[in-house]
């Protein structure tokens, strides 16, 4: 497989699909999408490259924006900022990156590598390190693999630039980089520890940009044809329909810098009389049906608008919304005992044994 | 209290007089091409029995409340819009997404007079993001003047938290352009720079229309001999004084539907219920909570522009008194004869079978010539009514937020289509003057104040109290009587990733219009 061009229509689909894979978090891809529309209008184009095309000794940049989605809503997103984080890493390490990949395919961070790639003229690597969205730095495939967490660059739109040269663990990286981000105004563009082509091929979660585009395309096509967008998602992904209902209560609280809480639903259609509750920490973590846990991280729990098929986020879900809950299969790397230590229900404080919807 | 409520709809301009909580008189007049004539006509008709005068013969009215679709129609139809200078304070952030960047091309071409972006704005915690570049603002104002622009929309990063930079920039612009109509985005609340800025730009684009329309309303009232303050109803079921509505016309965008729901609450005495407003062409279904429509919380598109307006959460379906009916196979709506009902309906000598013809045949309505619809037997009528009821039931079920049966208030000229029993509904309430519920809603509108901002290093209780104080001050500034204020919405959201127990609080209070 060779490189292929990503069309603007692909990016429109990516924005919809990545929001679904955000499993409630990850921030809206809307501002990234607007930037890509502007870049494509100016004549920029981005190509997508499968990991298999990488040589073992190639270097790959992994990028993401970190911080509060709310600050992003005010400062907006400038496509050049993430490119500067990559350029700083190249200056710092002396590497020349073969391509740029997403840390997190879920939500707005799915578009960050495209913006950097457009400015730097490199391809986007079709892989990420979460296969979804997660709240913390150690909740990635590369952290499960115990790959090096540093160095890391953080930049902001005013020209601030920092490098975290050395930390012993991913948890340390989370703490130190979070501090820098806070000082920048709770938003920073980051380039994570560079990865070799061999590492990306072994530990990357493969094909996730293509997957997000396919999901988004299915939803948009169904909307255009006035067909059921949720059935359309389930026709392109081996997911499971878990529930249809209405939001009857949303309870949110901020603890240790995260948005935690729970949403309760009353069943509709086939689920009339059945109550669902979903706990979240930025993302949807555990779904309970009539008091029994039926789906949990690392399975992807996606709460979707029943009419539009578009994802509903934990920050914006509200009383009265009519939603459909589906589960999508998790990346296999998270199903190992080590993987479950990082992202299983106990990693989020739920003393339950992981049981996959797909087992 | 004697108040006149007027609703300027697409077809009719309705007017009601309310005195001490009772509807004294309600009238309908056709909406005129120039809105003013329709209002004058409806006021003339309202006063034709002498109800507007007191014992001494003077017209004693405490307030006139007008609801209008004028402003939203201007945006949707791309008419009467003014070119706007956009001034954003936030450089070097956001440069790749300038003002108007997500507008539909045709509307942007009409409204975009020029874009200026200079350094300024704040952080989430109130620190300046960049110092305001005052020299650049003054330079921009000079260029606006040279370009002949008279309407300006100013936005700044995190201005809902600290409007200081926007206000200072407005002063600097005014020093160069003393007559400019300036909209600061902080006056339109809500976090989300792009959506707030869009609202501000739309507002600035309506500056000339708002000035002319409200002047025309004032003239109509003056000419009708009524000496009472004018209020304009807003999207959320409250009113603003004419001066504020002239400054912020975007807040009056969706008032028609809201007024119907508020009127339904008032006429029925219910504060929590579903409302179905059946017009000639469409039926709106919404939900009343504490006497106000439940608001849509998500992004609202107006004429293709993404905004964060306060709008009622409504579901519209193609069912009304003018809906086309075909019998084989049975189909009701969504096409309607609309305002041609009295010409095209069969009972009126026309050729199109409508829901109104069915009601005439069934003896539900005494309109037109019943003989012309004598061929429609009782079984046929029952089938059509059942189909209309099914459409209504489906819409109600989609808008309900609880599984239990709820009361339903049926208003609007087509309310005869709503039967006494519906699935999911505990009881159906038909009310007197229900066909003028929108004008009643305008007459009884209250004044609101809202606060939506981030509080840091406070307990949740302290933050909510602080937000309440700000919202109350804003309501009083908008004309409310402080003693009557009540909080009707309070929502708090802790902010992920922000340190120091940051919490975003949104509070809305309402109160009665202060006397005199």
- What kind of sheet is the major sheet of chain B? 6 strands, mixed
The low-confidence parts of chain B are: none
Q: What is the CATH topology descriptor of the domain at 82-205 in chain B?
A: Rossmann fold
Oligomeric state of the chains in view:
heterodimer
Calculate Rg of chain A over CA atoms.
19 Å
CATH architecture of the domain at 82-205 in chain B: 3-Layer(aba) Sandwich
Number of helices of chain A: 11
CATH class of the domain at 82-205 in chain B: Alpha Beta
Number of strands of chain B: 25
Helix/strand structural class of chain B: alpha/beta
Mean pLDDT of chain A: 94
| Strand segment tally of chain A | 18
Task: Name the structural class of chain A.
Answer: alpha+beta
Helix tally of chain B equals: 14
What string, H for helix and E for strand, traces the elements of chain A in order? EHHEEHHEHEEHEEHEEHEHHEEEEEEEH
Structural features:
heterodimer; A: 359 residues; alpha+beta; seven-stranded antiparallel beta sheet; six-stranded mixed beta sheet; B: 516 residues; alpha/beta; Rossmann fold; 28% strand; globular
Description:
The complex is a heterodimer of chains A (359) and B (516). Chain A has 11 helices and 18 strands. Chain A is α+β, with helices and mostly antiparallel strands and 359 residues long. In chain A, the strands form 4 sheets. Chain A has a 7-stranded antiparallel β-sheet, with no helix packed on it. In chain A, strands 3, 4, 7, 8, 9 and 10 form a 6-stranded mixed β-sheet that branches. In chain A, a hairpin with a 2-residue loop joins strand 15 and strand 16. In chain A, helix 1 packs across helix 9. The mean pLDDT of chain A is 94. Chain B is of the alpha/beta class and 516 residues long. Among the domains of chain B are: 124 residues, 3-Layer(aba) Sandwich (Rossmann fold); 123 residues, no CATH class; 67 residues. Chain B is built from 14 helices and 25 strands. A 6-stranded mixed β-sheet of chain B has the order 3-2-1-4-9-10. In chain B, strand 9 and strand 10 form a beta hairpin. In chain B, helix 4 crosses helix 5 and helix 9 crosses helix 13. Chain B starts with a strand and ends in a 5-residue tail after the last strand. Chains A and B meet through helix 2, helix 3, helix 7, strand 12 and strand 13 of A and loops of B.
């Amino acid at each position: 497989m060779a490189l292929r061009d990503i069309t603007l229509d692909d990016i429109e689909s990516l924005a919809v699909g990545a929001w679904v894979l955000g499993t409630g978090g990850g921030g809206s891809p809307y501002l990234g999408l607007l930037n890509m529309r502007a870049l494509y209008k100016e004549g920029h184009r981005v190509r997508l490259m499968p990991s298999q095309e990488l040589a073992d000794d190639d270097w790959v940049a992994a990028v993401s924006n970190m911080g509060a989605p709310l600050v992003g809503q005010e400062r907006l997103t400038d496509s050049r900022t993430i490119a500067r984080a990559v350029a700083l890493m190249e200056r710092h390490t002396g590497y020349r990156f073969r391509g740029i990949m997403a840390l997190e395919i879920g939500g707005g961070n799915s578009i960050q590598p495209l913006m950097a790639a457009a400015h730097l003229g490199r391809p986007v690597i079709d892989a990420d390190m979460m296969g979804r969205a997660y709240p913390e730095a150690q909740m990635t495939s590369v952290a499960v693999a115990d790959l090096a967490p540093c160095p890391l660059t953080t930049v902001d739109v005013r020209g601030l630039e920092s490098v975290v040269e050395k930390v012993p663990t991913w948890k340390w990286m989370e703490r130190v980089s979070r501090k820098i981000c806070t000082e920048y105004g709770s938003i920073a563009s980051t380039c994570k520890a560079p990865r070799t082509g061999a590492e990306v091929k072994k530990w990357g979660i493969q094909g996730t940009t293509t997957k997000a585009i396919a999901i988004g395309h299915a939803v948009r096509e169904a909307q255009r044809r006035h067909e059921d967008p949720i059935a359309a998602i389930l026709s392109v992904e081996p997911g499971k329909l878990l529930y249809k209902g209405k939001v009857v209560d949303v309870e949110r609280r901020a603890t240790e810098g995260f948005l935690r809480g729970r949403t309760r639903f009353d069943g509709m259609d086939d689920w009339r009389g059945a109550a669902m509750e979903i706990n979240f920490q930025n993302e949807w973590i555990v779904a309970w049906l009539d008091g029994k846990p039926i789906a949990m991280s690392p399975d992807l729990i996606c709460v979707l608008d029943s009419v539009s098929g578009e994802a509903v986020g934990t920050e914006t879900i509200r009383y009265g919304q009519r939603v459909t809950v589906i589960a999508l299969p998790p990346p296999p790397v998270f199903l190992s005992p080590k993987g479950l230590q990082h992202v299983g229900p106990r990693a989020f404080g739920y003393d339950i044994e992981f049981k996959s919807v797909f087992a | 209290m004697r108040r006149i409520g007027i609703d300027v709809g697409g077809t009719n301009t309705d007017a009601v007089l309310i005195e001490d909580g009772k509807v004294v008189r309600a009238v309908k007049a056709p909406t005129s091409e120039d809105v003013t004539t329709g209002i004058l006509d409806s006021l003339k008709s309202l006063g034709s029995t002498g109800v507007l005068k007191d014992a001494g013969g003077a017209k004693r009215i405490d307030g006139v409340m007008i609801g209008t679709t004028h402003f939203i129609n201007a945006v949707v139809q791309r008419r009467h819009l003014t070119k706007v200078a956009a001034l954003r304070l936030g450089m070097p952030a956001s440069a790749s997404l300038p003002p108007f960047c997500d507008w539909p091309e045709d509307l942007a071409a009409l409204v975009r007079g020029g874009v200026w972006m200079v350094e300024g704005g704040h952080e989430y915690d109130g620190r300046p993001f960049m110092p305001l570049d005052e020299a650049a603002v003054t330079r921009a104002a000079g260029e606006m003047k040279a370009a002949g622009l008279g309407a300006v929309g100013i936005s700044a990063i995190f201005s809902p938290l600290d409007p200081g930079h926007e206000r200072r920039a407005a002063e600097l612009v005014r020093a160069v352009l003393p007559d400019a109509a300036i909209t600061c985005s902080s006056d339109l609340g809500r976090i989300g720079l792009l959506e707030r800025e869009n609202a501000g730009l739309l507002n600035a684009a309506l500056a000339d229309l708002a000035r002319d329309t409200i002047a025309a309303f004032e003239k109509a009232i003056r000419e009708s001999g009524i000496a009472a303050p004018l209020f304009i109803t807003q999207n959320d079921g409250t009113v603003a004084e004419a001066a504020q509505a002239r400054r912020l016309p975007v807040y009056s965008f969706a008032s028609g539907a809201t007024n119907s729901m508020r009127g339904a609450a008032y006429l029925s005495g219910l504060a929590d219920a579903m409302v179905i407003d059946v017009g000639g062409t469409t039926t709106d279904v919404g939900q009343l909570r504490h006497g106000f429509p439940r608001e849509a919380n998500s992004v609202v598109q107006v004429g293709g522009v993404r905004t964060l307006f306060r709008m009622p959460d409504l579901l519209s379906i193609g069912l009304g008194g003018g809906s086309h009916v075909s019998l084989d196979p049975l189909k009701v709506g969504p096409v309607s004869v609309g305002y041609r009902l009295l010409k095209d309906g069969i009972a009126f000598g026309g050729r199109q079978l409508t829901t109104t013809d069915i009601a005439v045949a069934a003896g539900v309505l005494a309109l037109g010539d019943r003989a012309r619809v004598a061929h429609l037997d009782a079984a046929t009528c029952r089938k059509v009514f059942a189909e209309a009821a099914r459409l209504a039931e489906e819409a109600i079920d989609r808008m309900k937020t609880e599984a239990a049966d709820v009361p339903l208030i049926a208003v609007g000229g087509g309310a005869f289509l709503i039967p006494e029993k519906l699935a999911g509904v505990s009881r159906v309430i038909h009310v007197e003057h229900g066909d003028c519920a929108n004008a009643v809603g305008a007459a009884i509108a209250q004044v609101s104040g809202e606060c939506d901002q981030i509080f840091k290093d406070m307990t949740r209780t302290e933050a909510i109290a602080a937000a309440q104080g700000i919202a109350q001050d804003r309501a009083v500034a908008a004309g409310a009587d402080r003693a009557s204020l009540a909080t009707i919405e309070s929502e708090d959201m802790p902010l992920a990733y922000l340190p120091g127990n940051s919490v975003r609080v949104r509070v809305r209070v309402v109160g009665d219009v202060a006397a005199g």
